[in-house]
Give the backbone structure.
Amino acid sequence: MKTEEELNKEILETTRSIHEHYPELSKFEDEMTVTIPDKESPEINASTLKDFNDSLQAMAQGYAHSATKHIVIIGAGFAGLKIARSLNNNLHYRITLIDKNNYHQFQPLFYQVAMANLDASNISFPLRNIFEKSKNVRIRVEAVTAIHCESNTLETEKEQFRYDYLVIATGATTNYFGNSAIQEHTFPMKSTFEALQIRNTLLQHFEDAVATKTADTEKLLSVVIVGGGPTGVELSGALAEMKNDSLPFEYPELDFTKMNIYLLEGTSKLLANMSEVSSKKAQAYLTKLGVIVKTAAIVKEYDGHTLLLQDKTELQSTFVIWAAGVKGNIPPGINPEQITKTNQIKTDVFNRVVSFKNVFAVGDIAFMETDLHPKGFPQLASVAIDQAENVAANFIRLATQKPMLPYKYSNKGSMATIGRNKAVVDLATPKLSFQGFFAWIIWMTLHLFLLIGFKNRIVVFVNWMYKYVTHRQSLALLFPALTVKNKK
């Protein structure tokens, strides 16, 4: 049991902490002071002092809970993280940020992790480090198992939370369009771990090809990328550069003329959301690098070895990367009537989930239908960040009894990089498209500034310059435990 001296010290520290964090409690000054008796007046014992200390802490906690609103944010992607950072240390709100990972992932550079150009730590940022000086943001590394919007509660694997406001920012996941065989045998790339898995499998295939003396060498070396959006284009371009630059030196035993890189797109052009000129230029860049580009190529079946297209064409490969589509990552408990065919949650112009005033959906998970955009907004990082900024601003307005402002979409354009000195950029205002070295510089600069932390920006820049000068990957590390699919 603590002595009176120890309890007195703890009481003084508690009182000082309460004054610092809850200055509004100064009106309870009389209740927050106590006179410690001397030996001649022993009427207050250690037990009484402990009760007093406990009551002080309970009073502070009770005041904090009654004076602030609780926001629970599910997902620490671009949208969820932006809201939490915008409301960091805001006196009106306490925030619980829930994610199944303890880090934020910078998705636009997943492909560089997959191609051994960057380390995973360069694009993944620990959440507790981001909020280490925060007084109102708390992190929970858990998976949400149920949402109960009617009772303003949600459950995770370990605990239950009651909220005043709920923000769903769970992003998107890979869409296999109901094909379980493709899901089983192909590799997605929607997380840092999946990017590492792709890198590991690719390197393992090269090692296996060195050891094999059979006709399987070509199958082991060939890679098929399904999906001609930015992810597929950037992956195939980076892989083609590896084939042309570093791989022949690292694996002199292998004949890389037998390595086929296929990029399959189901529609009539690559980069469907970009201009015709950018689409054609991207395809020309890839073709020059040696990528076999097939448009209007719809995958029908894949068994881990043979990929069958709808036109009966067969491609032999044990390594297929699936980047053909995404769908909203819906947490359990959302009413099916509020979910669209694209697996997104219907919202109003304030990002509030339809039928609820205190539940918001932001970013890739949100479907906001407007007169100008009846099919919703593109699932891009820029849209997620803009919506998050608007939602955070509206929370501040709500705290000061001001009306919320609707989200207004601002098209900033789009871009994609194909490789060294090769990129395509479409600007919305002014309406302009350009390609080549200048577009590549714009792409690199933007992505550097979007990274979190000065250290990470420096490390990524150094890695890029090293790759530019030496034509080599610096992070070709093989971890066998990560290889789990289509292992020979």
In short: DSSP finds 15 helices and 24 strands in the chain. The first helix runs from residue 4 to 21. The chain has a mean pLDDT of 88.
